[in-house]
Amino acid sequence: MRKNIRIKIAIIPAVLAICAAAIFQASAKPKKNVIDEVAWIVGDEAIFRSDVEEQYTQMRQDGSLPAGDPYCLIPEQLAVEKLFLHQAKIDTITPPEGQVQSMVDRRLNFFIANLGSKEKVEEYFHKPLPLLRDQLVEVMRNAYTIEQVQNNLTKDVKSTPRDIRRYFESLPADSIPYVPTQVEVQVITANPVIPRQEIEDVKAKLRDIADRVNRGEAEFSTMAIMYSEDGSAMQGGELGFHGKADFVPEFSNVAFNLSDPKKVSRIVETEYGYHIIQLIEKRGEQVNVRHILMRPKVGTQELKDAVSRLDSVVADLNKGTFTFEEAARFISQDKDSKNNKGIMVNQNTGSSRFDMQDLPPEIASHVEKMQPGEISEAFIMKDERKNQDVAVIVKLTNRIPGHTATLADDFNLAKQMYEANLKDEMIRQWVEKKIKETYVKIEDGWDGCEFKYNGWIK
User: Fold this and answer.
1) What is the pLDDT of residues 236-293, one digit of tens each?
2) Which residues are registered as beta bridge partners of 238?
3) Could you tell me the pTM of the whole model?
4) What count of other Cβ atoms lies within 10 Å of the Cβ of residue 279?
5) CA-based nearest residue to 66, from 450, 454, 440
């Protein structure tokens, strides 16, 4: 039996699914002829039948119904979520607003790409996009918060080669995962040259906004909603409390030197574009600021020029004028790989190996037709981090055919599996301890279940 090789703590996907249910309207028919009722009480919070029905509706729409009675599994998952969120309050975990907004943007873009248009997204979720965005913000805040609690609980997990070997060798044959075809690639990126006038126009707009705010003629938050190109725009540009290391240095250097909440900073240039910043509050080593981000627009000709520059690089590479590694170091503008010989690293695993589905789609479509050692022609792709188009060439350095995992070939995977197993057990022990310490009441009709965790029913 083939297993999914994506290694995560088991609770996280369930919690994300629970959170996602908040953006759907309940449409499933209740098991009983009751409008609503309390199903569980956890601490001082209730889980209602409507909460369970919403999640059940989500699962039916996604085709992901659980193997078991959903009226047992779903309320237990909701109860576990409440335990984590309560712990987050104790630990004073505050989701960074900018990161939450970026997560929401990615999720909305995913919906739009898969459903075809904003209108179809609204039709699918039965609500306008602004309302969907507001609900997704809460979804992503909870998801981030719960993940941070879990990370805090499992941060000290360590493994040795001996531990990993023993674990892997103890696995039943049908529990050893099948590893799909993977690839290793190198990349060189060239940013299009932005016309000087376009940059000056953006700076002029930001200076005008800053002047209006400084004169008291406009509110910074209103201007952010109207003009900012960052995901935080809908929150008036507010990013929430952060430490210096949470921002790129250019942004941090200005944000942490602000002292007057009524004044706006000078224009700050970062890899993401041009910003102006306003202080909201300082709290110890953290600061909460608003910002407005604007990006100069790149024209078609500038993109063509960038592609042409890289086509010349490809020609020189094929002639042996220099190596791909040398070109990556001295030419590439991809900061994550240029000092790593151009090697792309999978952010999900820390490895240089990628499943095809984990590559950016533009890269995957080229790599799929290539043989190891080949270098692609130059092409255009979207840099999701900076939300702009760039020119790219890739080299396929290795293709690893699909196979059943072995310790020799897939040690990193075995390590991930072992550590995930340890973390899952730590989470289980923590949840069952919290259950003992928390007031829990399961109403009649909801208690005849085999639960995942022990201790719900005293």
Assistant:
1) 998 888 888 889 999 999 999 999 999 999 999 998 899 999 999 998 888 999 999 9
2) 290
3) 0.65
4) 20
5) 450
